[in-house]
Amino acid sequence: MKTITKLTALREEMHQHNQSGCSIGFVPTMGYLHEGHLSLIKEARNNNEIVVMSIFVNPLQFGPNEDFNRYPRNIARDRKLAENADVDILFMPDADEMYKGILSVEMNVKERVNILCGKKREGHFDGVVTVLTKLFHLVQPRRAYFGLKDAQQIAIVEGLVEDYFFPVEIVRVPTVREEDGLARSSRNVYLSSEERNEAPAIYESLIEAKKKIESGEVSTSAIISGMKDFIHNETSGRVEYVEIYSFPELTPIHEWDGEIILAIAVQFQKARLIDNIIISLDKKENQHV
Ligand code: PAF
After folding, report:
1. Which of these CATH numbers, 1.10.620.20, 3.40.50.720, 3.40.50.620, 3.40.1260.10, describes 2-173?
2. Among 47, 157, 226, 280, which has the minimal tally of Cβ within 10 Å of its Cβ?
């Protein structure tokens, strides 16, 4: 595995691979790797000749009161995991390398943004699309891999790629879970042991809701309040949102039809956890919500 920290070195390296017609699979991350990231690398490894992973904790996607400074980092461990997972090129720039001075053109996400995580995290997705635009231009991947746990991020990135004709295929990779159902996340380390025991209730609430929808519940508000009550009863966390939309458009639904996302965010003392499930539904008579 080659580790590259400078833009010029990455450009040269990628130029050579692109010239030789290799397919490049790209896994952008902020590090502190877990099974979820490893599943993205595995997908990339299975379907491309060259696998590039970036580790960059992007300051632009953190709000002033968010956890940029205490975002978990462990570069030595990440490098080992990346090497064992057969990454070819690990790109680890510093912030000066990625953001030299003030941006003269800023990116601003307009659609699918003032809901779910975007509602509370003003400017977060502007930061995400900015860094990904830079990274896509540098790496020039044929495919880029994203976890479905951050479903809103995937929907927004798909919009970016479509709007600006990026020649990259966005590959959605299913959420990786602990044995008890908790979605893997770098932020799970912030949970106290008590909270860690409670946290699987997040996924359970989604599964229960899915069962209710599949067995004929037609009211979104009944589903949402059922999930909120469940989290309230089973955990010490505070529900930040439970929302239901069409996927990937992220528009309100008027009938149970097509791909639908149920998404939830729960705030524990030091960890804010998100999860979702996407369900495919056939239009049924009288299923207006
Ligand atoms: O999902 C993440 O880890 C980040 O938002 C990403 C895509 C690497 C951009 O910084």
Report:
1. 3.40.50.620
2. 280
